[in-house]
Amino acid sequence: KFKFNCWIDVIFGQSGGGYIAQNLISSKEIIGKLYDQTIIKYFWLFYIGIFIAEFKDTLLPILQKYWYAFLIIAFAFFWTGCDFFSGYYLFWSLFLTAGLIGFAFRYPELSIHTDISYGIFLYHMTVINVFVNFGWIEKWLYVVPVVLTAVLLAYLSTVTIGRLSSVQKQKITQETMGTYLSRSRSGMSEKRVGDENVE
Fold this sequence. Notes:
Elements: H1 2-24, H2 29-36, H3 43-54, H4 56-65, H5 67-80, E1 85-86, E2 88-89, H6 90-106, H7 117-133, H8 143-198
Antiparallel strand pairs: 1-2
């Protein structure tokens, strides 16, 4: 229980620190822009995932059972705007993460063959920045082309660069393991010969 509470304290401590830094640093143009490019302001989000993984035996059954409730609460915070901004909105992000992870583990059969989640992570902000640069903002209609473009780029990247890199990684791993096993056998043979010479 003490360990669990410590993790909770760290999550809210990080997000609280992010809230303070957001208000103190982001107002300074150069420092604020440099700060925005670091992982510091977003790390508490990754920490939530680590926290769930650390206490998965306790948390996953709850997330799987009440995933819909977490999503409803998340959207309630989103629509009302009653939240704290610390890189991302605190309670919206917290409950959205809980709901999505709970949903994913509740319905594992929905897993798709080609996982483009990493590609979406890589490209979504690039697409958003392009739309912002052209002034295509403040209309919900723009969400559709943003999502479609990000998904398309993520898919193309996954089936080309992603698969090629996986093949190369597997090839390098096999070659490395082959070299290691070969050296191990050679070392054992040399040891055996040395032992026989001693005898």
